[in-house]
Write a structure and sequence with these properties.
4 helices, about 130 residues, 4-stranded antiparallel sheet, alpha+beta, about 25% strand
Length: about 130
């Protein structure tokens, strides 16, 4: 968890993310960490946790940057808001975030998105 926060802070420092973007990502990581603690408690009392995760991997070749974001499905709306606000101009025209949200909420599992554009930008979204 700390290495992810450090990576976010380095991206803010280098100007790849704004301070606001960094704060939102760190808050999402903290929320995910809280969810992990809840999962541990549920295991201790003998109940199976029902938390599902969305894993988003982005590779930007022009500056050789990789970003991996793991969020509980319950935070998918937060992740989509961040994507719309800060990355909409980098997404392909036919990349429909609302449709992806519907697929995620419908219970889909596995890799649901894998794209690469002409410049080499890669995005992969997996549900576990």
């Amino acid at each position: 968890m700390e290495s992810e926060k450090l990576q976010i802070l380095k991206m803010v420092e280098s100007g790849k993310l704004s301070a606001e973007q960094g704060a939102e990502l760190i808050k999402a990581l903290d929320d995910a960490n809280s969810s992990n603690r809840d999962e541990g408690v549920m295991r201790l009392i003998g109940r199976k946790p029902e938390t599902r995760w969305i894993r988003i991997k982005v590779f930007v070749p022009e500056d050789n940057t990789s970003v991996n974001v793991n969020l509980p499905i319950s935070l998918v709306d937060v992740g989509l808001k961040i994507a719309k606000k800060y990355a909409a101009d980098k997404m392909p025209e036919d990349f429909d975030l609302e449709q992806i949200a519907e697929v995620i909420k419908s219970g889909a599992e596995g890799k649901i998105v894998e794209i690469q554009n002409e410049e080499g930008l890669k995005v992969e979204i997996t549900i576990e």
